[in-house]
Amino acid sequence: MLDNKVDLYTTWGKLWQCGGGGQCGTCIVQVQEGAELLSERTATEDKKLNKKPETWRLACQTIVGDGTNSGTVVIQTKPQK
Fold first, then answer.
1. Which DSSP symbol is given to 50?
2. Could you identify which of 14, 44, 66, 76 might form a hypothetical disulfide with 22, taking C-beta atoms 3.0 to 4.6 angstroms apart as the criterion?
3. Separation of alpha carbons 45 and 60, rounded Å
4. How far apart (Å, rounded) are the C-alpha atoms in residues 29 and 67?
């Protein structure tokens, strides 16, 4: 997402983001397609995304692909419950 200059953060998220530590939750995205290409949720995500839909991930904690698979991942930034 960074390489493609995706606007990940809300206005407040730009000010309060934690720099990739998974502590602030400002980089939440919703995975619409391609979840099978993503890493498993981390313990940090499980804690931060408790009671959120399984399709929600923290972008800073999510790795796309493992070098042996390819495909398309479609995400929605700034999802609303």
1. T
2. 44
3. 10
4. 22
What long-range pairs does 45-54 form, CB within 8 A, spacing at least 24?
Answer: 48/22, 48/23, 49/25, 52/28, 52/81, 53/81
CA distance 35 to 14: 26
Residue with tokens 């499980």: 46
3-class DSSP state of 46: helix
Q: Provide the residue-wise pLDDT of the chain in tens; the chain has 81 residues.
A: 767 778 777 777 677 788 888 888 889 999 999 999 999 999 999 999 999 999 999 999 999 988 888 889 999 998 987
- How much is the pTM? 0.83
